[in-house]
Fold:
Amino acid sequence: MGNTKSGALSKEILEDLKLNTRYTEEELCAWYATFLKECPTGRITKEQFEGIYASFFPDADPTAYARHVFRSFDTNADGTLDFKEYIVALHLTSSGKTMRKLEWAFALYDVDGNGTISKNEVQEIVRSIFNMIPVEDQKNLPEDEDTPEKRADKIWNFFGKKEDDKIGEGEFIQGVMENKDILRLIQFDEPKKIQEKLKEKKH
Structure:
């Protein structure tokens, strides 16, 4: 009922989040207080979500990636996330168990939500990931993956796909689980940075 707007987190949501994330009750309650301060309605908009990502990555442009992450968690497409969706989003993008994380990664890459991934969709997400890597760090990337196009090609080749082929969820998850290289290529892997920022926000 009015739980989302009250100062305390409902026991039901708290238990659910403790079960499905690695966060403690203390952490969740502290984040909820911060969340309500920034989002008094109990819901976070896409713009606010993008703002949070922008504060995590001051040296880069995470807007496009944040937009895709938001889309993948806004399951009812109402343009907002409640606290539970928000915490699950942060948890899965920064840690999360492999299977659930891969199901989320598939949703992230399935930009049009039609149940399959095309090479164009891979390029779109990889490009948004590149925008989050500071220019200086991009110079240190291996030569065969130092542009979004090269990285997308590499992912597509790992799956043995032709240019116009599509990848379904089962094939995507199996391919990534069998090949650590694909896992590294499909994700933006700076969870420590996100978790450090979250800890700072709490204090």
Remarks:
- Residues 1-6 have pLDDT under 50 and may be disordered.
- Residues 25-38 form the longest helix (14 residues).
- The two ends are 30 Å apart (CA to CA).
- The chain is about 60% helix and 5% strand.
